[in-house]
Amino acid sequence: MTVEVAIREYAALGEGPTWDADTQRLIWVDILGSRVHTYEPASGRRTVMATEQHVGAAKPRAGGGGLVLNLRDGVALHGPDGFRWLHREVVPGRRGNDAAVAPDGSLWAGTMRYDEAPGGGALSRITADGTAEVVLDDVAVSNGTGWSPDGRLMYYIDSPTRRIDVFDVGGDQRPVNRRQLAAIEDGAGFPDGLTVDADGSVWVALWDGAAVRRYTPSGELDRVIPLPTRRPTACAFGGPDLTDLYITTARTGLEAPHPMSGSVLVVPGAGKGLAQPAFAG
């Protein structure tokens, strides 16, 4: 597979690529740069929006449009009517990290401490009216979250565990029966962001592993895409047919980063993705 540069950038901590089917654009963030980026592959048009806080994720909203943001101090809405907090919870030393929108339109927002202390983060479910419920506590670095094509399984990564876990999803949307889908061996990096494809396989970016891997629903490793950059952070399918795999990368902490570090990479024709729901709020 050919790895190309989709967006030449010098993001400190590029993260959270999300394809917005309604606008045919890619949304992604630079967490430490406090920036939300968009990119339209058809035209090459790009936008950059500054945020007043570190931003862990940005996802499209249904209805009035705009974005839902997982910020340092909570979850906020941004759109034609301006900015407003949806759920604000200030915890000194903690920030928002990766987030995902569930099939029911709720936002599953992860947090972590800046020092990555064990138990300092959590995964919370935020509904359209701002109701927040902690789903998983005792988390160190809350990262990739995704659902199987039928919505009956949820996949989740707490990066320092080196595990990709899978849950059953009940009728109340609560994940239960946590178990290991796969583990990343020593020396291969840490699992970071993930996406689920139309076959139900899980694609995972490996921080410090210079690769993206695909695992089957049974946990078998069946594909590895080597990357020129050491710190890929997350991946998502995009493009008109959802066949192009976009990969965000980071420069932070590297003494001699690769020239592509901080850019968004793309692997054309890597597979077939799933259309992602917009946040219901």
UniProtKB/TrEMBL annotation:
GO terms classed as biological process: L-ascorbic acid biosynthetic process
Domain SMP-30/Gluconolactonase/LRE-like region: 13-251
Binding site residues for a divalent metal cation: 15, 143, 192
UniProt entry tagged with the keyword Metal-binding: yes
Active-site residue list: 192
Cofactor dependency: Zn(2+)
Example GO molecular function: gluconolactonase activity
Pfam families: SGL
Keyword Transferase: no
Cited SUPFAM superfamilies: Calcium-dependent phosphotriesterase
Binding site for substrate: 95, 97, 115
Keywords associated with the record: Metal-binding, Zinc
Coiled-coil region: none
Cofactor comment: Binds 1 divalent metal cation per subunit.
InterPro entries: 6-blade_b-propeller_TolB-like, SGL, SMP-30
Family named by the database record: Belongs to the SMP-30/CGR1 family.
Protein name per UniProt: SMP-30/gluconolactonase/LRE family protein
UniProt organism field: Streptomyces scabichelini
